[in-house]
Amino acid sequence: MRDLVERAMAGDHDAFSELTRVSVGRLLAIARLILHDEAAAEDATQEALVAAWRHIHGLRDPDRFEAWLHRMLVNACYREARRTRSRHVREVQLPALDLPAPDPTSRLLDHDQLDRGFRRLPVDQRAVLVLYYYLGLRPEEAAAVLGLPSGTVRSRLQRAITAMRAALDADARSLPIAEGGAT
Amino acid sequence: MTSRRMTDETFDFLMTTWLDERVSNDGADAVADAALARTSRIRPRPAWLLTERWIPMQLTTRLQPVPRLTPIIAAIALLLALAIALFAIGSQHRLPPPFGFARNGTFAWVSNGQIVTTDLGSMTPTQLTTGDPTFNRPTFSRDGTKLAYERFSDADQTTADIIVAAADGSNAKVIDHGGLGIMTWSPDGRSLAYMAWAGTPNASRLQIVTTAADGSSRNVITTLPGDAWGPVWSPDSKRLLVGVDPGGYTDTYVVDVDGKNAQKLNHIRSLEGGDSDGEWSPDGSTILYSAGDPNLALGVYLVGFDGATERLISPGFRSAKNASYSPDGSQIAYMSQDYTGQGWQVVITDATGKELKTLPGYHGSNAPIWSPDGSKIAVIDWEGSEETGSAVVVVLDVAGNADPVRLPGGRLSMGRGEYALTWQRLAQ
User: Fold this and answer.
1) CA distances in angstroms from B292 to A106, B228, B308, B322, listed in the order given
2) Cβ-based contacts of B40 with chain A (< 8 Å)
3) Do A32 and B1 touch (CB under 8 A)?
4) How far is the alpha carbon of B70 from chain A, nearest alpha carbon, in Å?
5) Cβ–Cβ contact A109 with B under 8 A
6) Which of B87, B167, B207, B284 is most buried, with most CB under 10 Å away?
7) What confidence category does residue B93 fall into, taking pLDDT thresholds of 50, 70 and 90?
8) Which of the residue ranges B46-50, B94-98, B344-348, B414-418 would you say has the lowest mean pLDDT?
9) What residues contact residue B263 under an 8 Å CB cut-off, 6+ apart?
10) Whole-model pTM?
11) Does A138 touch chain B (CB under 8 A)?
12) Which residue of A has its CA nearest to B4?
């Protein structure tokens, strides 16, 4: 991997192509998680890869290629989110859900509630949740990816978690709970 | 109606599994194809045109606040200051020569976006600047009396105010706006050189600006055949060494301060992305610089003014850069990385480039800065990786008689520190 990165840093497009093939699946998955929009995620991933090639000389430490590429992607997601903001607003107007018999302890329902809560979050909070929970980055590592002070990332993460938990709680309150259900 | 309360562990588990189950990379190949079709038609930008290269350091470590003084302590301090001032007035004021050995003064570097100084004796950091933390690139004048630095003034932090202050940070004055990048003092202490975007908005180029240290005059050198950067003054303060990009590669030029007599020194075409880090030998006869070789590993070169081809003095290394003459010009230090790729070490050669020794230990890849007395070399090291770790200033003993010193308060969370360390020269 390091050899590929160094060759790419030297201007070897073939090496960059190999890196792209290795990374694109993960990048696209992350973009989909952050943006919740198929077309926007593909655009953001493509833009991130093009930006990475343009700025490859800005990478000073080959071992940090992955984090650096994630940063490119998150920035591309922010740009896409701004560009497609109106579309996102429309997309969060979900049709009424045909819920199964309410069982708030079921994972299916939890996931559905998470999904709705996640969609309501601003893109910067979604990004930090994805970096933290999906990529498993520590706040300090996420801060490096996002180009933010770690304190900002911690507070942003805390706000996002609070919002997600509030969404779960609100949804739970809005559902009839069977006698003897979880409290 | 009731609400569910879940533990943090349950929530974490839910989030992790939910995100994992949502992941899909279907269609990734098509995205890769589209991206690569575009990248195959463009080339990367030169490193020195990228803002990543110029972003200022940021910090994670807070400086220790100055303890609140009681009136009595303040009065004592005032008396002491008065006594020191009287002693200083009574003493003959001596300045070090611009080249040759001198007494070690303080370090200046950047911490939390502010300019900070300390010395090897007290190890107590003193913050010289306040306000928005956008200060960078402190550099002492060669006589040690003045300190110039930059303060980024735009949201993108790509252009800066140029500020000149006394060495202790007092009497700071903005002498120019819109500066950029590496800034150097003329050895006579009268002028500064740095880069700035100049020209029309549609045809803007990176050009060299020279400004009187008091801001009374400003000149832009427009005669160079491309974007120009990294100006370094000749020992007689009459010429400048600059890197020039005529289009995708970097040439090494010297040019008179008035823009006349531009002379290209290198014969081998240096690839873009190489650091220049040029320096004059103290006698002005030789130029030391680093450049990208055809394998894009960086190498350190020596070239004179006799038209002879430049000579690589770091052939045994995978990469070498940031070369610097000792104060008396008898030795050269540069950062080197061998083919094991383990890290960067400081190599010391004689003035001809003949290798003399390698200082023990692996350190960050930047800035071997000689102490004015020639006994120490300061480098910027990382704890953790360059991007996520924090940086510290490490002072190495050239003779190997003392352990490395890590400067307290020097922990920095930053990406680029190579130009953010400067050592004050004092009269011996």
Assistant:
1) 60, 17, 19, 12
2) 13
3) no
4) 33
5) no
6) B207
7) low
8) B414-418
9) B253, B254, B255, B305
10) 0.58
11) no
12) A183
